[in-house]
TrEMBL record:
Tree of life domain: Bacteria
Ranges where the SGNH hydrolase-type esterase domain occurs: 125-302
Gene3D superfamilies attached to this UniProt entry: Gamma-glutamyl cyclotransferase-like, SGNH hydrolase
Species assigned in the record: Streptomyces huasconensis
Residues in Gamma-glutamylcyclotransferase AIG2-like domain copies: 9-114
InterPro entries, per database record: AIG2-like_dom, Ester_Hydrolysis_Enzymes, GGCT-like, GGCT-like_sf, SGNH_hydro, SGNH_hydro_sf
Name of the protein in its database record: GDSL-type esterase/lipase family protein
Amino acid sequence: MSASRSHTLFSFGTLLDERVQKTLFGRAVPTTPATLDGYTTRPLRITDEAVIAASGLDVHLTLVRRLGSAVRGAVLHLTDEDLAAADAYEVDDYARRRVLLTSGESAWAYLDAKPLRPAERIVIVGDSIAYGRCDPQGGWAARLAAAHIARNEAAHRVFNLAVPGATLSEADEQTPGLLAPRRPDTVLVAAGINDFALPLTGSRTPGDGPSRVTDHLDSLAATALSRNARLVVLGPAWVDEARTRDYEGLRFTEARALALRESLQAWCDANHVDHVDLWEPLRGRPELLEDGLHPTPEGHQVLYQRLELVTGRSGAEH
């Protein structure tokens, strides 16, 4: 049996209460003071009776992004078993994600389960579908930007940096230089379909293709974390293979698009990264695809409505 690993978990609320720790972990756990920049807090009403019983409170606090703010708390030093107990304690409003502490160290923290709900400044990197090709209104990204900025024009920003034809390799290479001037708290990656396309010639470079996708996702995750930004990965939309044609030496097939979908989902699950599946909203609806690959304006509206499910306006954390 392998030895239990050590984990660091940032908390500022009930998990710092010794009574809660003894209930969850059977003991008080070691803690170290810590600060998390770029966040503030707000209240969240809890309805889970077990959580209320453990904490003695029906209102907890949640982390909310806010440039120039900081939250003081502590890092809990936990075993695998402790971390699993903490996960079980958190209600469905929360998801465990990586954050960068003021000290420069990374740690787990429980964030809003709807990744775009607490976002203020969103950067989108992706390909032609994220760019909005075949939609004069700018695609799902433009709809997301309009709604997001309308909620708070003074603080909310969306920067769509998608490039038609881009691969994950190119997004990985270009993203580090794009983030600093835009100060994002959220990085939305919508690419990979070009990596999984079937090359019609031997012209593809060794850095492209399915075998390198996880490497590029690892790198993009590290880039986002270096800015203390939350990574959100969008899975591909359904491909109507009967109507796709060859694009610049590439052929797009449903089987390879489905393989990309499964690869992205598996990586996100393994790394506790937010994943939004765009496959089902268009699956079996060829009328919503202009050419079998790029959504029509109506198709982009459907994809935007799927994204709206992760932009709810209530929720919180410990």
